[in-house]
Design goal:
Elements: H1 3-7, E1 17-20, E2 24-29, E3 32-37, E4 42-46, H2 48-56, E5 61-62, H3 63-73, H4 78-94, E6 98-101
Antiparallel strand pairs: 1-5, 1-6, 2-3, 3-4
Organism: Desulfomarina profundi
Pfam families: PqqD
Protein name: PqqD family protein
Length: 107
């Protein structure tokens, strides 16, 4: 198992906080969010739910805070939303668009 897999293991998720990477800039275009990682030159666009998550990540937040808001706002089961959220956060992290902090790291 690599370190990214361990980082996003469901047993660890409750101990982590997530926020946008300082390497990323974003804007809204035609009801979608467009994100650019300046240092890597990576471009991503997000659908409505992805935009909601991106907006939540403007401030440091926990996995369960994101999950609670999504389940409240969208018609989706908690289990399905949780699986999809882990996948989405991993993708953001792998593209250097997400900062993940564990409790023992200093800010």
């Amino acid at each position: 198992m690599n370190s990214d897999t361990l980082l996003f293991d469901k047993r660890n998720l409750h101990t982590l906080t997530f926020s946008r990477s300082t390497e990323a800039i974003s804007t809204d275009i035609d009801n979608e969010t467009v994100i650019l990682n300046i240092s890597a030159g990576l471009y991503s666009n997000l659908n409505h739910m992805g935009t909601t998550i991106w907006n939540i990540l403007e401030k440091s937040t926990t996995f369960h805070q994101i999950l609670d808001q999504l389940v409240t706002e969208y018609e989706v089961s908690r289990a399905e939303c949780s699986r999809d959220l882990v996948t989405f956060l991993k993708e953001l992290y792998e593209n250097n668009l997400l900062t993940v902090q564990s409790p023992n790291e200093t800010k």
